[in-house]
Amino acid sequence: MPVRPSPQTASPGAAPATARPTVASYNEWDPLEEVIVGTARGAARVAFEPALAAYYPLGDPERNFGGAPFPQEDIDRAERQLDAFALRLEKEGVTVRRPEPVMHHEGYTTPDFAAANGHAQTCPRDVLLVIGDRIIEVPMAQRGRFFEYRAYRRLVKEYFAAGAQWVAAPRPQLAEETYVPGYTTEDTYYDFADHPALTEFEPLFDAASFTRCGRDIFCQPDVVTNRFGIDWLRRYLGPEFNVHIVQFSDRYPQHIDTTLVPLRPGLALTNPERPFKDDMADFFTESGWRLVDAVPSVRTGPPSTRDVSNWISTNILMLNPETAVVEAAEEPLTDLFRSLGIDVIECEFDAVFRFGGSFHCCTLDIRRQGELQSYFG
């Protein structure tokens, strides 16, 4: 069914009301009205490639692994949890859309690289960036995710037909020049800032490397996002937005949504295992923000676990400034939120983790109430 703006009513004789944009989202906390929830159907494990080198030191025999389908029972269990999550959002009054499953089991070749197979369409937050009424297809650094945008094209075309802006960042080549040769995360190169995984050959970024606070957008250069990509987005958005680079002490950073998690104006979770390396903490606190240490997940193993971060607990979705969706087993985080005056909706989601993330990763805000504002002095 085509997506159309919600009709507006007006009293007799009044000027026509302006229809609310179909796509409108400026931050991570305003009341959620419409969202895309991903799917695990069609998912596969990507083969080793240069963009994954951060997680496999030189000499690690697992650098030779090839791609493979996920076991069907894992897909089915994850999909049941995704379906239950989508149903719960609908019960909360949120319109939920789902992508079209794309089978990622086949390999593909471009003029610049070959991939044994693709990955999934479980995490729309990685692939698309919504800022206001703009939907941006991002230039992802992983070869196995090159065609992932295809799962969302039907939805994006509907949103465009209903008035949204739609742009694709420059499609990357992902050639050998894109990656730092022989990249490793051995102790010699512990400081990521001094030894990035990507060159500046072309603009690259995942959407989940950015978090939105109205006119101020925060991002970190990481294993899938380079400064060329940040510069491209900054120039595209123009002076209406301030794109800030934030750096944390993190051996292999990827995405910001388990490191800096805005909850509402003036309140954000931070990761005590990944402290700020720059003065951005002062930028927040001097603007009246409270930064609260998150708690690690009870679902996962030690920090070396490759399938999922041990901070997956913080990958939450804010339905509004007073309500968060939290994984059902994460009682320490639930207790923390309630101490902050935030209600919690608990959903089981552990089967979804291995497909790329939790509630924030597996959703994409399409429309939230509220307008563009500045939350910093």
Automatic annotation (TrEMBL):
Keywords carried by this UniProt record: Transferase
Active-site positions on this chain: 206, 255, 361 (amidino-cysteine intermediate)
InterPro entries linked to this entry: AmidinoTrfase (IPR033195)
Compositional bias ranges of the Polar residues kind: 1-11
KW Transferase (keyword) present: yes
Enzyme Commission numbers on file: 2.1.4.1
GO BP: creatine biosynthetic process
GO-annotated molecular function: glycine amidinotransferase activity
Region (Disordered): 1-22
EC main group: transferase
Claim: Nucleus is one of the keywords in the record: no
Family (UniProt): Belongs to the amidinotransferase family.
Name this protein carries in UniProt: Glycine amidinotransferase
